[in-house]
Amino acid sequence: MSKILLEETKKDLRRLRLNDMADGISEAIEKAGQNKLGYLEFIASLVKKQVKAVNARSLDRRIKKACFPEWLTFESFDWNFQPGLNVEYVKDLAGLSFIADRKPVLILGKTGTGKTHIATAFGIKACEYGYRVAFYTAQDLLRRLDKTLSHDTTFELISYLVRLDLLIIDALGFIRPKREYASLLFDLVNACRNRVTLIVTSNISFEEWGQIMGNPSITNAIVDRLIDRSCIINIREGISYRTHGPNAPKNSK
Questions:
Q1: Domain range annotation of the chain
Q2: What is the tens place of the pLDDT at every residue in 65-83?
Q3: Is the dihedral of CA 122, 132, 47, 52 positive or negative?
């Protein structure tokens, strides 16, 4: 094997921005000789290395851009802990057909029952499937929307959000009420309808949403749009993992 030709090939690959192929070509040539690979098999193995690396970087960018609070996946979820959870239903939804169908997913349950974990696991899996995802707490998202009012840029932010495939709104119930929030959330939900899949988690009932948002009539319209065609994961009868899980303080069990 000519070292000069090898180095020239590496330089050419880097000029084409095929850096992973350039980095792996020496090892690929050695393996090809050991395994007596044909020309096509050799090229295919080298191309697959580049594709795999590109896909890994793309996934990393999607996950970072989504801004998940933690790395929470279905693999790390304790399926046996929560007696109030319909495990089969959640695992069926994990196929993510609801994203293609633009169906909202509402995850309802008391604090500590695993709502954020399930929502994040859906989001991470969606990133692995190539979907564009964003994760916000309800308070942070409403605060951002409210801030746009002073600059008249609400339309721009909502336009950005409706270009996503999946928008996760976590902890609707833990918000500091503000008069504009109900209308802003209605505008967002209305804009996302049949365009962006929403996952919303909440520790309070639909009836209490109106009290929290400060405008029951607008909140009812929001609920009506979210419930339409929605998938509901109801673990309101569940127990808190934080107070009754394996790492909970002994006196709380």
A1: 3-60, 74-252
A2: 999 999 999 999 999 888 8
A3: negative
